[in-house]
Amino acid sequence: MMKHFLFFFILINLISCTLIGPDYKRPEINLPNTYHQESNKENVVTDLNNWWKLYEDPLLNELIDKALIKNTDINAAIARLEEADAYLKQVGAALIPSVDLTSQANRTKATENGTVPSSFVKPYRKNFNVQLGTSFELDFWGRLRRAKESARAEYISSQYSKDTVILSLQSTLVSNYLLLRSIDSQILMLKDNVGYRKENVELTRKRLESGLISALDMHQSEAALNNLSAQLSDLVRQREIISNQLILLTGDMNLNIAESKLDNLITPPTPPANMPSSLLELRPDIKEAEQIMIAANANIGVAKAALFPNIALTANFGRESAELKNIDKTGSNIWGIGLGLTLPIFDAGRTQAKIYQATAKQKEALSYYESSIQNAFKEVNNALVSLKEYTEQENDLKLTQDAAKKAMDIASNRYKAGYSSYLEYLDAQRV
Could you say which DSSP state residue 51 is in? Predict the structure, then answer.
């Protein structure tokens, strides 16, 4: 009997190919073939999975490794992925009949004052029962398969969500690390300038005592020293704030990063020119948004299937006897097969409202998908134009730095020789 039952189950699932609800089709997004801004170099970035290693900084690599292990956002994303995996298994299990083993033993007493005289009925009865039973829904309309499709999309979405969290963490950590190194460079430069200002204060004091200058130059040199010291204190404050942010990102409460110049880092290669905009499809946040849309699309089918009859099949096989010792004897076999059908007749529009809800969520997911692509396209364009303009700005600032250094040397020599005032020397330093 159980073999026949299993054969019937397999046959039903083979012939029940109807799937209620719309099949997913990826929407077309109108984007330019290439990005608006192009790189002015032809260097090619190869290892995108470990892009931060292009800076060739062992400490940065160590911070990334710590963050991938200890960061709370990543651990939460992993937990969500595990939850989605468990839910997918739960939904998928509904397509396979579950088998339960039940057994019971009871003793009852019949009434002695009933319509049947007690002389024909024993007042005390015993009953022993052991059986295997199953009950499952025949998925004629694809409700369970649509639910599994939705659960699978949610699981894949959780995977991409984790990848997005990891990528965002890596980007934030590297940005804060580079900002820390930039502040370090400014701190080291200001420390040197504070030392120079102190020497200038001493030199100005000696010249004042010799009567070569007025007290105005002395006050100006002291004010310049105090102003520079205040700037240094503010940079130290900013560095501590960035350090605390890196502690939070890495999860290492004992993290202590020594000062180092930004110039010690290797300049990574720039993206190649004429990159196609279709590369956006590789971004995990875009893939996550698409899987959310797939799940919402499948849920429409789940909601629509509720309009059709629900057909359930039940079966059981076992043994039953009034005496435990006779339960394995011939004649104790029991079995049963049942088919149930439930058809909604009137629910005051509840089922139709669920269909409207599922359709609205699908539209929302579509808008979110389109918005994700547009925002990603904007971010890449902004990054490319920033890279191009910052590169040109860096070249101009290097030329400015060289010219300013020469001007300061000349102003310093003129001041020491008494040919110019201290104010002229300060102006050269500010440049």
Answer: G
